[in-house]
Amino acid sequence: KELQGGDDFKIRQMLFRFLLQNTGTEVSDLCKGLKDGHVLCRLVKRFYPNFEIEGLESRTSLERIELALKTAEVHLKIPSLLNPKALSEGKVDEKSVMVYLALYHSLSEFI
Asked: How confident is the model over 25-47, as a mean pLDDT?
């Protein structure tokens, strides 16, 4: 079933709240809000406490995104559905980001 415009809005708002609750960062645009990799790294850290986020400032946004996606795939079994380069450039499809973040949201229900 295709999502209606209102459904998209509700899901987007739920994901904004989810990111704020789990990363401490307010995000108002799912694509641009993730492009530097910091929010993704904090999200991975929330669900995989052994993930080391110290020293990530010295890495590029692409390196942070690649590290977060790979760590989530290996340790949280969340498939890497996003293209790291496209995400770092803010050129990723918003629905793809929504699906990816929804996997974390689903994971949160089991923790």
From this structure: 96
